[in-house]
Amino acid sequence: MSAPIPSETLLADAVALHRTGNLAGAEPLYRTLLERQPGHPDALHLLGVLRSQAGDPAEGASLIAEAIARRGTVAAYHSNLALALKALGRFDDAEAALRNAIALAPGSAPLVALGGVRRAGGRPAEALSVYRAALAIDPADGAAQEGIAHATAELAATDAGPPAAALTAYRRAFRLRPAAPFAAYNLASTLRKAGDAGAAIPMFQAAAALAPADPAALSGLGLALLSGGRADQGAAILARVVRLRPDDAQERFHLAEAAQAAGDADRAAAAYKDTAALRPTDYTAWENAALLDARGDRLSALAAHAGGLMAAARAKHLFWKAPVYVAMHVANDRIAAGRPDAAMRALDRFRQAAAAENRDLLPWIDFLRGSLLLRRPGDEAAGRALLEGLVPALPFLRHVASADEFDALCRSVPPEERALHRAGFQSEPAAGGEGPLLFAACDDRYLRLFAAPLLLTVEAFCGAGQRVHLHIADPGPDIAEVVAGLRAPLRRCRLTVSTERTPPDLDPAGRRTLYTCLRLMRAPDVLDLHGHPPLVMIDIDALLPIDPRRLVDAMAPEEEAMLIHRPDSLDHLYNTISNGLIVLRPSSAMLEVLERTATVLLHWLRRRSMAYFLDQMALIQGFADVERRRGAVGILPIEELGRRLGVPDVFLPFFDEKHRAGFTDELSALTARVCEETQGGGRSEEERRAALTALLRRLQAAVPTTR
Predict the structure, then answer these.
(1) DSSP 8-state class, residue 425
(2) Number of C-alpha atoms within 13 angstroms, CB side, residue 461?
């Protein structure tokens, strides 16, 4: 029998395998050594490092902690424990471990690791300070300079730092490590994001030369070529990336974009379809492929793609109505190109697909077809007949009113009934304040769910004296306590609350619809109460990470309303205006729009004829009614708002699935996080806003796109 391998040799062999990345070969050797010597500190530590690298940081942290318990004076043990704890999201514990490492062996390396922990925990400003301390110790430490660049870029992304500073930091990092592929790649990526494709291209080429097998460098090069107007070259590079990463949906999408920009519609459509096959939740890939098929009159391909889209929605890979939106966008595109005949042929293909794959969407596709017929000379009667036949399936269509009909509905509500309804508006006295009035309405349940995060977000971004009015339908008996709790953390906002009781004989669907209409029904009362300031209406289940005053300031003097405005879209009968965010100046025309809209909504309430989208339809018709009698109203489409303000996200909706299991707990956790970021002490106002902006952007990335 051969003699057992000495423990020293066993450890040396395990370390040699570990260094070459052979984790499967090294692990049994570490474990054999621990069977012989259960408390061996080095074996415990190295096995813990291995388990963390193998994707089990919990076991890794446990093993390394055991090694520290036996030999706590080795700085590397504490540093590697910090890495495992960081992977577990235990950032405070990781920082404590690194402080132990720094105490045992001061130097730049543990400070760089500490910066990484702070960045991972969403604290880039605090990370920046330790990276700078590390660079002061060792001015040639490329990892410290790279950390400075990353933290600076993260601060710039939250508007808490100048964007140019990140680019300067990445240039310095590259000068320290010119042979490191990731240093060249990071600088190239930053140049591309800054819009300097010309400078980014040679840097991406340098990164690709340093790491020829790295698809990321090639992908960056292809995208830089695309940004630089060299789409054909970009498409060729991105095709290489797809061959290296055949299962990567994002790379397929990039190839599709480049091919489309290069004018290769066939290749682009195929790549978009490949993207959708790999990532069926990608709405844009589905939509772009359909658009290219329609533009190329590839009707058979469009029919097949529409069938896949219908099936994807039925399987809940997409929002249930996504195929309708794609069909509408395709048809609108063909109408804009002067091809209404092609629009109808495309809708016919979507109808065939719905009949075969998703019959629940048939009425919606027919609604689009009816809308198209209404605008085709000679087909108006057929269009109206088609829409009338859809009322049982789409009840909101009963509320489509012509000019004369809308006026008749307004006149059908006698003044005394309107006065009685207004008497049901029970409000506190208006609070003084500055700027526009932020206004939301909801029932008691939504107040308890959503008011706190909305108010906390507004509080974080608004100026002093911001007025907020919440209108609450059917409040609970403890409403005073609930409102007091909402007011408690507010320092800038001045909250006013009003209430009303809704008719007790409404069916559940009608009551839900009434709740969506209350903002418009009560807007005249709220404006009268507050002296007719500019009005910012928002959904209660939303966040507004921007000062409401900036929304009003973004409007030109001749613009009286800001809203989503799509009068040329096929869904204009019910969705020309979205009530998520509306900004109105209190001109006489706007006051009349609100008054007549509220009156028509009261008519339908009196008739107990409520249907979803009623609020939007009434407001659309209210605008059209006033424009017919007074002339055009100046409207700023919300799509233009981001461009004027230079911010991408001014309005952030919550998750759509409010009734799914676990939603309330998720929302409570989010509210606590928003409160923590808003109220956290020891930080400047700029730091709090930067942290909250980062939180909201992470939330935005998690919100499923439905439009």
Answers:
(1) -
(2) 25
DSSP letters for 161-180: S-HHHHHHHHHHHHHH-TT-
pLDDT, tens digit, for every residue of 107-142?
999 999 999 999 988 889 899 999 999 999 999 998
Report the 10 Å Cβ neighbour count for 421.
Answer: 20
Beta strand segments in 349-502, E: 426-427, 434-443, 466-473, 494-500
How are beta strands 542-543 and 494-500 bridged, if at all? unpaired
Assigned token pair, 232: 């054909």
Tokens 């999201």 found at: 89
Q: What is the 3-state secondary structure (H, E, C) of 13-76?
A: HHHHHHHCCCHHHHHHHHHHHHHHCCCCHHHHHHHHHHHHHCCCHHHHHHHHHHHHHHCCCCHH
3-state secondary structure 346-358: HHHHHHHHHHHHC
Nearest of 77, 122, 16 to residue 688 by alpha carbon: 122
pLDDT one-digit tens code per residue, 262-287: 999 999 999 999 999 999 999 999 99
- Closest among 663, 661, 660 to 671, alpha carbons compared: 663
Return the beta strands (E) in 486-580 as ranges.
494-500, 535-538, 542-543, 561-563
Contact 496, 531 (CB under 8 A): no
Q: How far apart are CA 355 and CA 317, in angstroms?
A: 19
Strands 466-473 and 542-543: unpaired
| DSSP type of residue 6 | P
